[in-house]
Amino acid sequence: MGRPGRIGLGLVAAALVVLPPLTGFHPYYLYLVSTALLFGTVATSWNLLAYAGQISFGHAAFFGLGGYGAALASLAGLSPWLAIALGGGIGALGAAGIGLASARLRGAYLALATLAYAEIWRGVAHNWTTVSGGGEGLIGIPPLPTLGWLPLDFTRGRAGSYYLSLAFLVVVVAVFWGMLHSRLGLAFAAVREEEERASLLGVHPLPWKILAFALSGFFSALAGGLYVHMVGVVEPDLIFSRYFSILPLVMATFGGLHTLLGPAMAALGLYLVSELLLHPYVPAFHQLPYALALIVVVLYLPGGLSGLFTRKPRGAA
Amino acid sequence: MSLNTLAQALVSGALLGCFYTLMALAFSMILGVTRALNLAHGDLIILGGYLGYWLWSGSGLHPLFLVPVAAAALLPLALVWQWLFDRLPEPRELSSLVLTFGLSLLLQNIMLALWRGEYRLIASESLTGSLTLGGLRLNQGRLIVAVAALLVVGGLFLGLTRTRWGRAVRATSLDRDAAALLGINVDAATRTTFLLAFCLSGAAGVLFATLHYLYPAGGIELTLLAIVLTIWAGVGRLRSVLVAGILLGVVEALTVAWGGPRWRETVVALMLLVSLLARSGGLARGWSH
Amino acid sequence: MAFGGLLALRGVDIAVEEHQVVGLLGPNGAGKTTLFNILSGLLRPTAGEVWFGGRRVTNLAPWRLSGLGVGRTFQIARPFARSTVLDNVLVGITFRGRHRYGRALDRRHEAERLLATVGLADKAPARANELSLGERKRLELAMALSTRPTFLLLDELASGLSPKGREEVVRFYGRLKERGLTIFAIEHSFRILAHVADRLVVLDQGTIVAEGRPEQVLGSPRVVQAYLGEDDGP
Q1: 8 Å CB contact of C83 and A190
Q2: Neighbour count for residue A171 (Cβ, 10 Å)
Q3: Which residue in C52, C123, C133, C175 has its CB near the most CB atoms, within 10 A?
Q4: CA-to-CA separations, C80 to A190, A197, B130, in angstroms, rounded
Q5: With contact defined as beta carbons under 8 Å apart, do C136 and C77 qualify?
């Protein structure tokens, strides 16, 4: 990235850090940007999985598992911090599960399997009333507690969750960066580009795929866990909805597949535009920009999507 | 579960299965000629249903008269879809999924904006009420829908096997390049397929609206059903699709009889996942004949 | 080896001695690549066994065969298209079963040395999909060597190259043999292997039609007949 890029990035980062006091700890704006940051986290984690060649149409499953896991733990009395972490773990397990099960699937078939997986969890959360609270979900999830050792303004109200969501994004981006510059990235790229060739070079694809799923699921679930603590409720048809599956897909492809910061940038940009510009004026269509962005990217920006559509597996060639 | 309940479920499921066949055929026809997966398939059917509902509540006409109207109403969309699918990058199976994921969301938003989230049903008197045949109570509506669906499927079968354009469509679906070499106008055959498939979807939508509540997000279940059937029966094999459709209907009815209607959607998703995993080798071959 | 109703290989019984160079010849469609796919673990034979170094290795996964010392190139090069040339060879070096390095710097150095061996040192930072055909073939070879194999399956290294390129390939075969590697090489043209191979095996429609020292095989009428109708000839 050139100098102007770095300067711009630095400005954005600085702005994000000082946003709360800058806006006078205004709850609505903090909520808005927090949510955007959470989506950025999910989008980056989606991108991580895509880097390993696995295209997911069901990230809502991990987001939702994290949400429900954290909510249930929190309501059972566990500290919200631990509850969110626990939710992350559950998401990682759920992701590893589908990753293992669908290891022999590629491309469109893997995408469909992940889609089906998310729908299954949606159904389970909707119908397993005793555990999940059924269609109405769970309410009364406690907000994040204030931290005694930080100045009150920075942890009470929305500010606490804001900084946590920022922290999540920073961590997942750091993990992505670490992946890119390590053996992990080498293996992921090899499995993605030519799985058979990779296996001939000593790379056993399965454990790497499962790891990619687990990492991706973990961060998406963390975001989900924090999200439910921010809004205080969790509903099956909302948190497992395809909306949360399509968002990371759009943000990652729009922002730049396999790039470090593309998805996060796109998340902030798309979400803030849709919430600040569209929602107030045409609320019924506030999901529209994502749908349109996706259609445009598929048809007119194939370069941006070149990572999405890698070569077909050998058997089908 | 009593024997009577079991028999009830079997027949009821079989009737519904005829409808599922109709739905799955529309999906697999497009898949056959374009190798593209239309994830917005179910949403188009729901749209057909909403249009039918809108016409029904406005005009009071019997729903069966509205079937062709809704079918025709979706024709412009067929052309839009074909135009979009022509521009898909390779590999088409995945790129079409991405595109139609977006289209599905788009349609849902439009339907939500036009008709809100309340559940709608074409509750026509002639379709409620039941018939008793040999100790089994058959829902009249389901019976009529099943008959209508079978008629359409039968007509489609005749069309595809007896007419020239039908053979052209089948050839294009089997091997596009070979068909072109044989002098078949593959573009025309593709267009015919799209128009036909969307007609079927519109018709299925109205029929669906008489059986089941409409709501904007209800399409996904239908799409997943269509995909399951296509995996089970393969593309273009009408008889297999019919058998698979009835089988699916029965499985679903049994599940509902056992666990209640709430788990229906989940069972469909589970069946899709299991079907995909079971077919995990050479899936590309599995999509064609 | 049967694919559905098609019998691709039938009664193929081959032994390759250590340090030998054995050539596999035959017209298109003879089943040579199928055999290679079986030997590298990409295909499971419907009948028959594969042994390596005294061990039964039939049905072992490719990455395990690689760990035992089997390496392979593809006739149509299949590098990791969007990764750099350096990364392409780093994969084998990083994930091979034996001779692993602890430090990334060491791996990098070996990768650079390997690229230099095939003449691609200056292309290290380029993406694999930017390479020319000849360069891609060299990358294929480097990738196969990156796991330090003892047994190499080489698939038509010389095809599609200019005469000068083919000469280079012949020299390369010699160098690999000098290193003590065991080589099983498919070539379409007999001349490439004539001087370097210890033995030749000729396949036609899935069965062996000739086997033996190059001089013996060249004159065999069955071999000539198998190639009849081919532009190249044996």
Answers
A1: yes
A2: 14
A3: C123
A4: 6, 8, 63
A5: yes
d(CA A125, CA B263): 11
3-state DSSP call for residue A317? coil
**What does the DSSP assignment read for C39-97?**
HTTSS--SS---EETTEE-TT--HHHHHHHTEEE--SS----TTSBHHHHHHHHHHH-S
Residues written for chain C: 234
- Rounded Cα gap, residues C23 and C37, in angstroms: 16
CB atoms within 10 A of CB A93: 16
Most A CBs within 10 A among B119, B215, B276, B287, hence the mutation to make, goes to B276
CA A246 – CA A289 distance, rounded (Å): 12
Closest CA to A253 of A297, A191, A309, A312: A297
Among residues C33, C71, C204, C57, the alpha carbon closest in space to that of C147 is found at C71
- Which residue would you say has higher pLDDT here, C226 or C105? C105
**Looking at beta carbons, which residues of chain B come within 8 Å of A294?**
98-99, 101-102, 105
DSSP A156: S
DSSP for chain B, please give it.
--HHHHHHHHHHHHHHHHHHHHHHHHHHHHHHHH----TTHHHHHHHHHHHHHHHHHHH---HHHHHHHHHHHTHHHHHHHHHHHHTPPSSHHHHHHHHHHHHHHHHHHHHHHHH-SS-B----GGGSSEEEETTEEEEHHHHHHHHHHHHHHHHHHHHHHHSHHHHHHHHHHH-HHHHHHTT--HHHHHHHHHHHHHHHHHHHHHHHHHHS-B-GGGHHHHHHHHHHHHHHH-SS-HHHHHHHHHHHHHHHHHHHHHH-GGGHHHHHHHHHHHHHHHT-SSHHHHH--
**Contact (CB<8Å) A126/B112:** no
Kind of pairing between the strands at C51-52 and C55-56: antiparallel
Least confident of A65-79, B260-274, B275-289: B275-289
d(CA C18, CA C14): 13
Cα distance between residue B94 and residue A234, in whole Å: 31
Task: Answer yes or no: are the C-beta atoms of C173 and C106 closer than 8 Å.
Answer: no
Residues 6+ apart with CB under 8 A from A119: A58, A240, B220, B224, B265, B266, B269
Give this prediction's pTM. Answer: 0.91
| pLDDT 10s digits, A9-37 | 888 888 888 777 777 777 788 889 999 99
- Residue A99: predicted pLDDT: 96
**Contact across the interface for A196 and C41, Cβ inside 8 Å:** no
In terms of average pLDDT, the best of A28-37, A214-223, A235-244, B160-169 is A214-223
- Pairing verdict, β C21-25 and C199-204: parallel
DSSP letter, residue A152: G
Q: Which of B84, B109, B273 sits opposite A117 (nearest CB)?
A: B273
Going by C-alpha positions, the residue among B13, B12, B16, B9 that lies closest to residue B204 is B16
